[in-house]
Design goal:
The chain has 313 residues and is of the alpha/beta class. Helices cover 37% and strands 19% of the residues. Helix 3 links the parallel strand 4 and strand 5. The structure holds nicotinamide-adenine-dinucleotide and uridine-diphosphate-N-acetylglucosamine (UD1).
């Protein structure tokens, strides 16, 4: 039987590279299309075929999708803080890039397209409330608008193009290989600052809540989305557990440097206050079950950062 082939756009990035590893472990041939703007060569398993290109490059996409059965579309500009300043560049990649992926997927007869969306599509949830897929979708950041638009294009047009779409709304993902910049995930930022002897900055009062989901659970959901019969659907991918930014700061300071200073800056307008996933739909229709707990997995992220990203593979 011919080998199954998957294309992972953004496959040199944090989540994409872990997904590539899981696909290789399942015996698929894996292609990575990435411009390496934030992705890194050392994230990519040498068994992957790498296409270094912009996600809007149709010829590169054609090469990537030639004979491919499934496309996982993760390439994106991922920062919410900062998407206000970069809305045009974000839309070019996140929206126009998605449309390019979609069009070529139809042209190349790709069976399935799994789209990496985000909790950034939602309006704020009340304190203590879980966000279901029906929660109002009123993004408050340009990033969220680009993801919501991408989702809608993918879900509406894929069937007409003969492609089976599945959209996954990832919540706040943590794990090894998340690059350290001021704009990335709070866990990576806090760990790196504490290891460098710097103080922490908390935006707002720190009582804002997030659903921190380990990258292995995001990978699990993607693998299930590749096979599910529930096509044309959108699923939250998180844990259902709520953790405040103050909780994260307390946990990490306790583990690394209890005396570290904490400074508060004004809350960011483009950020939700509360976003915790109701994962009931993914449980029911995909068979998804979040397996990792923050307290159990945080150590590996600390070790990864301590080693300067060594041992990523
Ligand atoms: P990341 O920055 O590590 O990965 C994004 C990858 O896309 C990088 O390898 C980057 O080089 C590549 N890329 C960016 N612009 C590109 C372009 N124009 N052409 C080709 N490649 C390009 O970020 P990540 O956290 O791994 O995010 C992966 C996906 O998951 C994104 O779509 C993001 O929006 C989504 N997501 C992430 C989170 C999270 O908490 N990390 C949560 C929700 C959704
Ligand atoms: C992250 C992802 C985004 C994804 C979303 C989905 C990145 C860069 N962003 O955004 O792609 O769609 O999750 O859930 O991976 N904070 C501080 N101090 C800091 C840094 C952050 O207080 O130094 C706070 C923020 O104000 C925010 C919370 O921590 O309230 C989480 O921020 P962050 O980890 O950057 O994630 P999101 O912006 O939610």
């Amino acid at each position: 039987m011919a080998e199954r082939t998957a294309l992972v756009t953004g496959g040199a990035g944090f989540i994409g590279s872990h997904l590539c590893d899981a696909l290789l472990a399942r015996g698929l041939a894996v292609r990575v299309l990435d411009d390496f703007s934030t992705g890194r060569e050392e994230n990519v398993d040498p068994r992957c075929e790498v296409i270094r290109a912009d996600v809007s490059d149709h010829d590169a996409l054609r090469r990537g999708m030639d004979g491919a059965e499934v496309v996982f579309h993760l390439a994106a500009r991922v920062t919410i803080r900062g998407s206000v300043d970069c809305f045009e560049a974000d839309a070019r990649t996140n929206l126009m890039g998605t449309l390019a992926v979609l069009g070529v997927a139809g042209e190349r007869h790709v069976r399935r397209l799994v789209f990496a969306s985000s909790m950034g599509v939602y309006a704020d949830a009340g304190e203590g409330q879980l966000t279901t897929e029906e929660h109002p979708q009123e993004p408050i950041s340009p990033y969220g608008i680009s993801k919501l638009a991408g989702e809608k294009y993918v879900l509406q047009l894929s069937p007409r193009l003969g492609v089976e779409p599945v959209a996954l709304r990832f919540f706040n993902t943590y794990g090894t290989r998340q690059g350290y910049t001021p704009y990335v995930g709070v866990i990576t930022i806090f760990i790196n600052k504490l290891l460098r002897g710097e103080g922490l900055t908390i935006f707002g009062d720190g009582r804002q809540c997030r659903d921190f989901v380990h990258v292995s659970d995001i990978v699990q959901a993607n693998l299930l989305a590749m096979e599910t019969r529930a096509v044309g659907e959108v699923f939250n991918v998180g844990t259902g557990r709520s953790t405040s930014v103050l909780d994260v700061a307390a946990l990490l300071r306790g583990m690394l440097r209890p005396e570290a200073s904490v400074r508060h800056e004004p809350a960011r307008e483009e950020e939700l206050r509360h976003a915790v996933a109701d994962v009931g739909k993914a449980r029911r229709l995909l068979g998804y079950e979040p397996r990792s707990r923050l307290e159990d997995r945080i150590g590996e992220v600390i070790e990864y950062s301590r080693s300067g990203g060594e041992g990523a593979r």
